[in-house]
Inverse folding.
C-alpha cells in the first residue's frame, strides 16, 4: 500500500519487537492476544477516520511512533508496582483491580451486564467496572487469566487512541505536517502520558472527550448525532458530571455547522429548540444521578480541604472569598504539582522514580502552555482574534475549571486538555508573529522559574 512508507515499516518492527519482549517476559497469551487485537482494531479505526491516503499515512506514522513510548512507560510503571508490591500512585487502582477480579470470576457476560447496568451493584462508574470486568472475564475464560499488567495495557491503548483524535482535531485548524508535530508533542509531553498506565477511569473519559471534540467539527447529520448520543451515554456510565460537557459540545457542534450549512442556518432556532429540549429531558431523567454527582463533589471538597490543611499554600486558596477562591484554584490547577519534583522520592525503586520524573516533565510543559496562553490573552488581546468556535470552547474550558474547583485533580480535568492544547497551537501558529512569540516565551519561562523560587523560599522560611 502506497501510504505505508519505509519509516512506518521501521516503527512497526520496533513495536513488534517490544510486544514480543513483553510476551516472552510474561509468557502471557492474554497479553499477546491483546497486542494483536489492539493493532487490528486501531488499523480499522485509522481507515474509518482517515479522509485520504495521505492522512492515513500520517495517522499510521503517529500510531507506530507513539505506541512504543506508551507501552515502554506502561512497563516501567508496572515494574514500579512489582517493586513496591502495591499501587504506589493512586490507591483507587486497587479498588478497580479488585472489582475486575470479582466480575471476571462470574459465569457469563450476562451476569456482568446484570451486575453493572441492571443491579448497579457498584452504584456509580459502572462503565469502568464493566470494561475492567469484561477484560478480566475474557482473560480468565479463554487465556491465562487477569493481571495488573493486562489491565494497565488496555488503559494505555485508550490513551494512544486519544492522540489520533487529537491529530484529527488539530488538522481542522493547522497544516497536516504542523498538526502531526503538535500531536507528537501532546502525546509525549502532556499529562495524558503520565496517567496512561493507571487503572483509573480518567483516561477512558479523556478518550471519549477526544472523540466528542472531533465530532464537534464534523458535518451535522444523523450519523454524527447518533455518535454524539452514544458518546454521551457511555461517558455518563463512567462519570455523570463529565457527560454533561458532551451535551455542550453538541451545542457548539450545531453552532459550528451554522457557519457552513445553509440548512442549519435557516432552521437554527428549530435546532436550538430541540437541542435544549433534549438536554432538559436528559437532565430530568438523570436528576437522581446528578444529585449523587453533586453530593460526590461536596465530599471531594471536604476531602481536598482536609488533605491540604497542613500543606501550606495550597490550603490557603480554599480560605479565599467565594469567586476569588475558584479562580485561584483553577489557575493553580494548571501548575500542579508545584514544584514538579513533588512526588520524586529517591528512597523508592528506580521505576517509581522514573514515573514520578515523568510527572515532573509533563507538569513543566503543561505549566508553560498555560502561562503562554495566559500572557497571550492578557497582553496581546488574542481572545478577540479567536474563531467563534474556539472562543466558545475557551468559555467552556474556563467554566469547566471553575466548576471543578471543589476537587481540582489533574487526572479529572485533563479530559479538557485537548481543547486547551488546540487553542494554544492555533494561537502560537497563526495569531502571533515571531517577535511576540519570543517575548511571551521568555515571560512564560521566567514566570515559572519565579514561582519555583517563591515556593522554595516559602518552604525554607515558613
Amino acid at each position: 500500500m502506497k501510504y505505508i512508507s519505509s519509516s512506518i515499516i521501521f516503527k512497526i518492527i520496533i513495536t513488534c519487537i517490544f510486544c514480543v519482549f513483553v510476551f516472552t517476559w510474561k509468557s502471557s497469551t492474554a497479553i499477546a492476544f491483546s497486542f494483536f487485537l489492539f493493532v487490528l482494531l486501531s488499523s480499522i479505526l485509522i481507515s474509518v477516520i482517515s479522509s485520504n491516503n495521505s492522512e492515513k499515512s500520517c495517522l499510521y506514522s503517529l500510531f507506530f511512533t507513539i505506541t512504543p513510548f506508551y507501552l515502554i512507560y506502561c512497563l516501567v510503571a508496572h515494574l514500579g508496582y512489582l517493586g513496591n508490591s502495591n499501587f504506589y500512585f493512586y490507591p483507587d487502582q486497587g479498588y478497580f483491580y479488585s472489582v475486575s477480579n470479582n466480575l471476571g470470576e462470574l459465569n457469563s457476560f450476562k451476569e456482568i451486564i446484570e451486575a453493572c447496568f441492571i443491579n448497579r451493584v457498584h452504584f456509580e462508574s459502572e462503565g469502568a467496572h464493566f470494561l475492567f470486568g469484561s477484560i478480566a472475564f475474557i482473560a480468565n475464560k479463554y487465556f491465562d487469566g487477569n493481571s495488573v499488567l493486562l489491565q494497565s495495557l488496555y488503559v494505555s491503548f485508550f490513551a494512544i487512541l486519544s492522540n489520533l483524535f487529537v491529530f484529527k482535531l488539530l488538522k481542522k485548524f493547522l497544516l497536516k505536517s504542523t498538526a502531526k508535530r503538535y500531536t507528537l508533542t501532546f502525546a509525549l509531553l502532556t499529562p495524558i502520558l503520565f496517567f496512561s498506565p493507571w487503572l483509573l477511569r480518567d483516561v477512558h473519559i479523556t478518550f471519549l472527550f477526544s472523540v466528542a471534540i472531533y465530532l464537534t467539527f464534523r458535518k451535522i447529520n444523523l450519523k454524527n448525532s447518533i455518535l454524539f448520543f452514544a458518546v454521551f451515554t457511555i461517558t455518563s456510565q463512567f462519570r455523570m458530571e463529565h457527560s454533561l460537557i458532551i451535551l455542550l459540545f453538541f451545542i457548539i457542534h450545531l453552532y459550528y455547522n451554522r457557519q457552513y450549512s445553509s440548512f442549519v442556518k435557516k432552521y437554527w432556532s428549530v435546532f436550538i429548540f430541540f437541542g435544549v429540549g433534549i438536554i432538559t429531558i436528559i437532565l430530568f431523567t438523570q436528576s437522581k444521578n446528578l444529585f449523587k454527582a453533586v453530593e460526590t463533589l461536596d465530599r471531594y471538597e471536604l476531602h481536598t480541604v482536609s488533605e491540604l490543611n497542613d500543606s501550606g499554600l495550597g490550603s490557603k486558596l480554599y480560605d479565599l472569598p467565594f469567586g476569588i477562591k475558584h479562580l485561584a484554584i483553577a489557575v493553580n490547577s494548571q501548575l500542579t504539582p508545584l514544584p514538579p519534583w513533588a512526588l520524586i522520592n529517591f528512597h523508592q525503586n528506580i521505576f517509581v522514580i522514573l514515573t514520578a520524573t515523568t510527572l515532573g516533565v509533563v507538569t513543566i510543559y503543561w505549566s508553560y502552555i498555560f502561562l503562554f496562553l495566559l500572557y497571550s490573552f492578557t497582553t496581546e488581546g488574542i481572545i478577540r482574534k479567536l474563531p467563534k468556535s474556539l472562543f466558545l470552547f475557551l468559555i467552556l474550558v474556563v467554566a469547566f475549571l471553575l466548576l471543578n474547583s471543589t476537587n481540582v485533580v489533574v487526572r479529572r480535568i485533563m479530559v479538557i486538555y485537548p481543547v486547551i492544547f488546540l487553542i494554544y497551537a492555533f494561537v502560537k501558529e497563526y495569531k502571533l508573529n515571531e517577535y511576540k512569540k519570543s517575548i511571551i516565551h521568555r515571560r512564560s519561562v521566567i514566570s515559572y522559574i519565579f514561582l519555583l523560587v517563591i515556593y522554595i523560599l516559602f518552604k525554607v522560611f515558613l
